[in-house]
Design brief:
The protein is an alpha/beta fold. It has 10 helices and 9 strands.
Length: 277
């Protein structure tokens, strides 16, 4: 069941409208949509050429919603997301049921997220060592020490179990898929997932695995909005596709997406393209 139903854009006045991110054509043109941009499908895909505004709008939505970020910093503190926060202030969101459950992932931030998890685990382990030293120095009972250690040990074990070990100890693609399996595929309450080019580190086979995860997530009542270049992910059953090659973004069929057409034609006869490269 989609939580976020639509968004409307209120452009800033004066010279601010000519600055990034408001000058991005796809963003600027949103103001012409009297009913806003409909997002009431279980899965919504933003597709288009580089620089058309897919990620810009997705980042703005993430900042407006306030979901947790799978990155080195949360949205409110990340300096690279300052334009997203400015755009968020100009977005009016329509909800069926407002939620901050879920996550926002930019593919380029994933390595920073893995490092952040490692730092958090190291901090927990350091606190555990400090607690043990403090209680032994004070000659506290074993029972008191166990009570003090309990929450820290539980947090470390939960972190280990959630991602089946260290994310940055795997290959980039394996860690991506492990993350999606841990954060999207294990059920729980319905949530809103905002994913920017989640296919970046995934082989075609693993993109198919992610496609299955997205289908399961949507069937379980969660909502997914993603920006992608992947014809595989764009084929998610029941997804609404918006082409950002149009201004404002327009709904398109999978077969008419340029990425799909070009990939299909290249695979059918690569020599026709290679001759001209």
């Amino acid at each position: 069941m989609p939580h976020l139903l639509a968004l409307r854009y209120r452009p800033p006045a004066g010279r601010a409208a000519e600055a990034h991110p408001f000058a991005v054509p796809a963003v600027r043109a949103l103001a012409a949509l009297a009913d806003g941009l409909a997002l009431d499908a279980p899965v919504t895909c933003f597709v288009g050429e580089n620089g058309t505004g897919k990620s810009t709008l997705l980042e703005g939505i993430a900042a407006a919603v306030g979901v947790p970020t799978a990155g080195s910093e949360e949205i409110a503190r990340d300096p690279t997301l300052a334009p997203a926060r400015a755009l968020a202030a100009r977005l009016a969101l329509s909800w069926r049921a407002r939620t901050q459950r879920g996550l926002f992932l930019r593919a380029e931030d994933f390595f920073g997220f893995a490092q952040r998890l490692r730092r958090e685990r190291a901090e927990l382990e350091a606190r555990l060592v400090a607690v043990e030293a403090e209680y032994r120095a004070a000659d506290r009972s074993a029972h008191a020490l166990a009570l003090a250690r309990g929450p820290l040990v539980a947090s470390i074990r939960a972190m280990q179990a959630r991602y089946d070990g260290e994310l940055d100890a795997r290959s980039h693609g394996e860690s991506f898929l492990t993350f999606f399996q841990a954060r999207l595929a294990r059920g729980g309450e319905p949530a809103l997932y905002l994913l920017d080019e989640p296919e970046a580190a995934l082989s075609p086979q693993r993109q198919l695995a992610l496609l299955a995860i997205l289908g399961d997530v949507a069937a379980a009542g969660s909502q997914v909005i993603l920006a992608t270049h992947s014809p595989i992910l764009l084929a998610c059953p029941g997804a609404r596709l918006y082409s950002f090659d149009e201004a404002p973004p327009a709904a398109v069929a999978w077969e008419s997406v340029e990425h799909v057409r070009l990939t299909r034609e290249f695979l059918a006869a690569p020599e026709r393209y290679l001759r001209h490269l």
